[in-house]
């Protein structure tokens, strides 16, 4: 199938390449020319604008940083809606505010464009392997139509409900991940300060109830003192801000989320916004005077 792909960053680039590998014809666009060149070298065709890309394809995928980017790309001048033919399916795989998904879908529907939200979890390694976890909101029939394409980028694609439900699910994911990383950083700072080797603590607890994907992925890098991203603090701040807005909107309290968001804001202010979210360990190092690792 001929598929449009907009947003060829850390995640979009390998996802687009997996669609090429699966035999699709890709028409791509990004404001970053180097990213376009990289995917074009793998066989994609570069479009001259967003509307040009949208005019050529029955299905178009977006993988952009946040709600304002998606609104600009879909609704803005020379945007997707200017080019897309009625009946086109837009799959927005960006992690954005659920309310923004609903707003963009409404504008799409008015032009006969069918939109679903389909954010992902798993980070760059799973984007490269094509094993992302994909969470979907929107019309179930549209989801069924494109499920095969989603499963060429992911190991799972779960239908979660009406438009915006994919992004509500992603907010839950980001709360669980962010709070878990903070718990690991807090606990490992304690053991270091108390004179017990963090590596031995990791070995001792990883098989018990404290064991988790987050513990396995982030305790070793905290012990190494390696905060190369991965998933950046600044992107996680964006997700927790969207979670807090959503929580305030529906009247669901998020006290732990607001605490971890403030820790991340401190890291951003200290110049660590581009570090991996495991840099929450740096926050504890600052307030305790003790580093977990090197
Ligand atoms: P990124 O910043 O690496 O990539 C975003 C891309 O969008 C860039 O190439 C940028 O040039 C492009 N872009 C921005 N505005 C544009 C516009 N107006 N027109 C065309 N292109 C535009 O971000 P990423 O890490 O790939 O993340 C993308 C989304 O996926 C985010 O919502 C993020 O929260 C989510 N996500 C990221 C990860 C991760 O580990 N990086 C994991 C899961 C989900």
Strand order of the largest sheet: 3-2-1-4-5-6
- What structural category arises from helix and sheet content? alpha/beta
> Alpha-carbon distance between the termini?
50 Å
User: For this structure, what is the CATH homologous superfamily of the largest domain?
Assistant: NAD(P)-binding Rossmann-like Domain
Unreliable spans are none
Q: What's the helical proportion of residues?
A: 40-55%
CATH-scheme architecture of the largest domain: 3-Layer(aba) Sandwich
Number of strands: 9
Bound molecules: nicotinamide-adenine-dinucleotide
- Which word captures the global form? elongated
CATH topology of the largest domain: Rossmann fold
Strand content: 5-15%
| Name of the level-1 CATH class of the largest domain | Alpha Beta
What does this structure look like?
With 294 residues, the chain is of the alpha/beta class. It has 2 domains: 2-162, Rossmann fold (3-Layer(aba) Sandwich), CATH 3.40.50.720; 168-288, N-(1-d-carboxylethyl)-l-norvaline Dehydrogenase, domain 2 (Orthogonal Bundle), CATH 1.10.1040.10. It has 14 helices and 9 strands. Helix 9 (165-193) crosses helix 11 (213-224) and helix 12 runs antiparallel to helix 13. 45% of the residues are buried. The mean pLDDT is 97. Bound molecules: nicotinamide-adenine-dinucleotide (NAD).
